[in-house]
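Listing S7. Sequence submitted for prediction.
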Amino acid sequence: MARLWSGFESAGLLGTAPLFVLQIALFFAGLILFAAALPRVRPVIAALAIDALLIPAEWLIVVIKDAQMIAALTAATGIVAAYKLRSRAVPAAAAGVVAVLLVYAVLLRANAVFGVVPLVCVWAGWGGLRHTAPRAALMLAGVLAVLAVSPPINHRLLGARPSHVERVLPLYDLAGIAHFGGIATLPGLPVARWREAEARGCYHVTMWDAYSDPAECGFVADAVGFDGDAGAGLFGDWARAVAAHPVAYARHRLGHFNMTMRWLVPFGQPRTVGPPDSQPNDVGIGRRADPLLKGIAVAANALAATPFGWPAVWLAASLGLWWTAAGTPRSGPRDMALALALSAAAMLLSFAVVSIASDLRYHLWAMVATTLGGVALSVAPGVPRRRMQGAFAAIALAAAAGVIARLLLTPGTW
């Protein structure tokens, strides 16, 4: 994104406008291509899809890598759908454009790989593999391959300077293990300083952010050598801590997964929708929101308080969609639904292991993919009624549990 932005600047296209136009154009072009390839969709399905896409669409007013990612993935999906929904092969030129969009999405966010690899596997026909185990192995190999080649591309080809952001996960997990396991301290941190961190409430199940703030708990990151050479040893410390304290690690991870899924939580979860006003900066970019943008943000924020804004409900929907599509006779719409369901579910489930914050923006693609997959399956022939009913039941149960939790839990509890 930084290299693309600098390219726009070099061409005389200044400010955030070029990236804003790009993400708006890609997102809505993908939706238009997808919709145009469908036979007539029932009004109730279209209305639900519009509601479900409001939160992702609201984030498109913010020039941020998450918005660029969902725009690129939606455009790629629309191009593929324009052919596959009509049971036609994707031409080489169109496939090339899709490849560029998918590579861009993967390089924007590290966790995009969990959503992109399933799309590629299904769209490419799984390489002739027919059984679940070989297909799962293929997806795992694809994820590992992308994770291996991404750093050289970023640092050598694109010239990115190391920020050590990859060390955030082991630092946050080590803090969680120490917090739940009653461990005296973290490697390199004096015992008294860890007690101080605990007394300050530095660890929180929602996010790691306190450890990045010098005014709060940055001394923890400094002590473990987060930005220095000693920080490279965090991964070894992490592996040993997980092996020695699996229960504490599981408590930390499950607690955080619940928070990032916004499931059994109180009302009023923060970090839901994009800010309508630009972030303060000293380079003169961005703008204050007009009444229209503020109105969109208010509507999206209200919707985020309902099951439409709870990733746990979207996880139930994506798994139900996958289960239903897997039992549906093969067709263009069915295959598209299966690809999108796997993409959404894999990305959501990845947060059980790799998440360090609970912002809703991390789940935008899962919302888009599940919505489009559901629309595609609604026009597929031979959808098994019992599987579909089971999927709706799972969604209803996930939503009901979330509602009950919000009624019982007081703000600030977790």
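Caption to Listing S7: primary sequence and predicted structure tokens for the chain studied. Residues 165-248 form one domain. The chain has 18 helices and no strands.
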